[in-house]
Amino acid sequence: MKTVLHQLKWGNFNLIQGDMISDFACTYGEWSEVEVAFFHDILTEQSNIVEVGANLGLHTIPLAKKANKGKLFCFEPQRIIFQLLCGNITMNNLTNVYAYQQGVGREQSKCEIHSTNYNESWNYGSFSLDKSFSTEQDYQGEIETEQVDIICLDKHQQINQLDSLTLLKVDAEGFDLQVLQGAEKVIAKYQPIIFIEAHFYQAPVLIRYLNQLNYQCYWFISDRYQTNNFFRQPKTLTGLDVNLACFPCKNNVGGGGGEYQVILLIYQ
């Protein structure tokens, strides 16, 4: 593994050479900045946040800086990625972030997951608990096996003792439904805005489930490249991020009952 230290829009970051997300951040000085702008619009200084799938912290850091009087609980199961995440949190002098090297799912358990030396050029942000590094293509790098704890948010003591929860952000690469199923009590108690990755083939199940929890879902599809990017670089790397931005329905209007509801949310 080779790392590189960069000063980006939201602070200093130690990134991995050859990692897809790191390459975007090194090129443009930011990562999925449209999402960051959306988060900053819905958060306040006092907001509490849960982030499942924090990766290197390229969203963790700007979220924690916005909610600097609240708490951010983040989870990342990959040991090496988790260590870099913690380093990035520390480099940016953030004391309101609570980081856990754990997976998040439907119930408490232990899981054998793959680890690697991160020498292969790859999208390490696509790691999943069930498919490891091969969620997009077959990973060709060296593989080792490690054990990691899987927790469910409903049994996380500190999260359940919060006064409020503004945002639940989930990027679990196909494990997203299990994360929600293990957080039903948290969701019912706090009714946070839920921002969740949703590949098109997985989305119908997620949308139906969230409708049953009385949430209205909106497609949030954003371009990773922005013309006004922090480094003012021309487009050399491109791609789209596909998520659902989900809001609790008030007074049971417009949701619930297992209805299939989704609207396109345009945010740029």
From TrEMBL:
Q: Which InterPro entries match?
A: FkbM_mtfrase (IPR006342), SAM-dependent_MTase (IPR052514), SAM-dependent_MTases_sf (IPR029063)
Show the Gene3D superfamilies listed in the entry.
Vaccinia Virus protein VP39 (3.40.50.150)
Stretches assigned to the Methyltransferase FkbM domain: 51-216
Report what the protein is called: Methyltransferase FkbM domain-containing protein
Q: Which organism is it from?
A: Volucribacter amazonae
